[in-house]
Amino acid sequence: MSAMEKSLIDRRFEDIEENLKVIRENIAQAALESGRAASDVRLMAVTKTVEPIFINHAIDLGIDLIGENKVQELESKWEHLHLEHCEVHLIGHLQTNKVKKIVGRVSMIQSVDSTHLAREVSRQSAARNAATDILLEVNIGREESKTGFLPEQLEEALGEISALPSVRVQGLMAIPPICGSESEARKIFSNMHQLFVDISAKKLDNISMNILSMGMSGDYRPAILEGANLVRIGSALFGARMY
Ligand SMILES: *Cc1c(COP(=O)(O)O)cnc(C)c1O
Questions:
Q1: 234 in ligand 1 pocket by Cβ < 6 Å?
Q2: I need a surface site. Which of 45, 85, 101, 185 has the fewest CB within 10 A?
Q3: What is the pLDDT of residues 115-124, one digit of tens each?
Q4: From the CB of residue 241, how many other CB atoms can be counted at a distance below 10 Å?
């Protein structure tokens, strides 16, 4: 490694450290404002396009949960990551033909967006004598471009999924539309939280509502104010992504 490369890496290490400090402060502040403790909100570092050296630096700084979008990218990074004290969740759209490669590797699939996919995750988990924790992805903004369950489809889907032997629903995940204002964002997060509370209250067999995963770099503050307990942050931590 040249001195130049070394100094660029060191600078990015410092940026990540500084960014993490700011993010943790913001999370603690928003948690407090919503009547909770900082420790009630879990931080996920979203690592798509980020090289393992920087991901490992974040892990060294205390990150204990990372999220990747793509099975293939995760596979290529896996052996380079220091995962002894760090969990990995899949957060991107998963094709059924890739389920086999991911089950048993990640500790949760947050992006289960159809009953068809849930069935395949259960089938592949059973084949490995395991059960997989999942979140159901909700298309809360009713966007054509996004996958996920529409709010009114959730109850029927949960009924079906609760009967699957080898998946355990742990909560809900959402990616809201890009909002023009913080109040607009809060409204959408609030709708999502209400859905989460309503489903919890139904006490469905085999369904837990422990995790409400919403909020990214641009909107984690309003998400926490409206009840998110897991935020997924990429660019605010690692810097802008270059594809
Ligand atoms: C990329 C991504 C994130 C993080 O996005 P940032 O805006 O960079 O924080 C969170 N969730 C999902 C599902 C993503 O694909």
A1: yes
A2: 85
A3: 999 999 999 9
A4: 11
